[in-house]
Each structure stands twice: as structure tokens, then as C-alpha cells.
């Protein structure tokens, strides 16, 4: 306010001084209109200048190269974290779907083995078609897991490099956050992989039982055939 008052007083003084000068001169000779414009332009400039001096301006922060590098490193860790998060989610979902498909296949095979020898040829063929289709689905889910696992591994490597770069550049907080995110992602994937390993174990056990049950069934059929052929051979000897 003090600066504004000084500017107004200064403006009033100059305006009065201009009037005195103009009143002592002849308008036709000295062209007061031109001098008036110049004088008031100078007064206006002085007034504005005086006003600007009283207004506090916010200084534009000048970042050093080191500060800009830290900022860039933080941005890299943020984008790498997003990439890791998406690939982790995709991989866990793929592993879960694979485990579900394997458990479904195991249930179908166990049901088939339990009813072995009790089915008609048409029923047995129908069940085998379902089992074959489920095996194809398991293979598709397994390929999907391999695809996302490869992408996830690359994401982890990228994040490790980003964490190291952030640490070297001085962005220690970003580096620590990135390292924590990597550990969390690895822990989540390991938990999901346990489900997959458990499903694979049950599938392997079911395959062993299938081989044993099929061998027993074949031996039983062969024994029945031998028993049926004995009387016929005995009758031919007679």
C-alpha cells in the first residue's frame, strides 16, 4: 500500500508539473499534444514500475543436472513399477487358470478310471472326447503361463536396473520403493506357482494310477478271454 501511495503521489506531481509547462507554452508552436503524450507515457511507465517493485514475484526454480537426473530416475521407477504390476497380475491369473484346468482334468480321469469296465463303448468314447478336449485346454493354459512368465521375468530385470539407476543417481527413496515392489511381486508369483506345482503333482499321480488301472483292466480282460477259451479247447479234444 505504501508503494502504491508513493506511485500515486509521484503521478500527481508529474501531472501538475506538466500542466505548468503546458500553460507557459504556446500550443501552436510547441505542439503540446505530443509532449503531453510523451510525458504521460513516462509517468505511466514510472507508476507501473513503482507498482511492480512492490509486488513479490515467485522465482522460477532452477534445477541442476543432478536434480533433473533424480527426477528422471523416479519417473523410470514409476513406469517400471506399473509394468511389473501388470505382468505380475497377468502371470498370476494365467497360473490360476492353468491350475483350475489341471484339477478339472484330474477329476475327469479319476471318474473314468472309477467307471472303467462299467461303461458301454459309446459312453467310454464320449468321456474320452471330453478328456482329450480338457487336455488341449491344459496345454493352452500352460503355453499362456510360459508367455506371461517370460514377460514377467523381463519386467523384473527392468525394475532391478531401474532401482540400481535410481540409487546411483541419488534417488534413494525411489530405489527402495522399487526394490520393495520387486520383492512383493516375486512373493505373489511364488504363492501362485505353489498352486500350479500342486496341480501338476496330482496330475502325475493320476497318470500313474491310470497306467496301473489300465494294465489291471487289460489283464482282467485277457484272463476272462482265456477262461472262455478253455471249455472250447476241452470240447475239441474230446
TrEMBL record:
Show the segment(s) annotated as Disordered: 214-238
Q: Which InterPro entries match?
A: Smac/DIABLO-like_sf, Smac_DIABLO
- Sorted alphabetically, which keywords does the UniProt record give? Apoptosis, Mitochondrion, Transit peptide
Report the Gene3D superfamilies cross-referenced here: 1.20.58.70
| Record flagged with keyword ATP-binding | no
Pfam families documented for this protein: Smac_DIABLO
- Biological process GO terms, please? intrinsic apoptotic signaling pathway in response to oxidative stress; neuron apoptotic process; positive regulation of apoptotic process
Q: Per its UniProt entry, which superkingdom is the organism in? A: Eukaryota
Subcellular localization is given as: Mitochondrion
**Record's GO cellular component terms:** mitochondrion
The similarity annotation says: Belongs to the Smac/DIABLO protein family.
Identify this protein by name: Direct IAP-binding protein with low pI
Record organism: Channa striata (Snakehead murrel)
Name the lineage: Eukaryota, Metazoa, Chordata, Craniata, Vertebrata
